[in-house]
Amino acid sequence: EEHVILVMTRLEGDPIADRLPKLGHAELDELSTQLATVLQQVRRIPVPGNGVCGFGGRPCRSYQMSFSVFGPFASLKGFNDWMYERTKWRRSSDGTYPPSRNEHERLILSHGDLTPHNILIDKEGRLTGVIDWECAGWMPAHW
């Protein structure tokens, strides 16, 4: 039986949400570069299969959606079909449905709750970490 272990540690720093109004343009530019580097590294972590899932193939979590736990799905098509069924009543003003879904989109490891409250910076405004990965999972790249 395969086990998944997610290790968490305490990180130094304050949420960027607490300090955002006080950061200058140069600090924000540097912080953006640092965060982009971290996210590029995370997106290179290989998908452990073909489907949309949380860590260890478990269900996904999302605080951004009205359904907090969903999946896992054996394929991107399964995920897209599930999402479509939940949103098909949301037609555009001209009465048409959303454009077709890309069944070949790349899956990436997504944080799932990347907000200013989950990005930590030190006193100099440098990135010290990204926290609260409980909503992370392998999702479509647009996620």
UniProtKB/TrEMBL annotation:
InterPro entries: AGP_Transferase (IPR051678), Aminoglycoside_PTrfase (IPR002575), Kinase-like_dom_sf (IPR011009). Gene3D superfamilies: 3.90.1200.10. It holds the Pfam family APH. SUPFAM superfamilies: Protein kinase-like (PK-like). Residues 2-142 form the Aminoglycoside phosphotransferase domain. This is Aminoglycoside phosphotransferase domain-containing protein. It comes from Calocera cornea HHB12733. The lineage of its organism: Eukaryota, Fungi, Dikarya, Basidiomycota, Agaricomycotina.
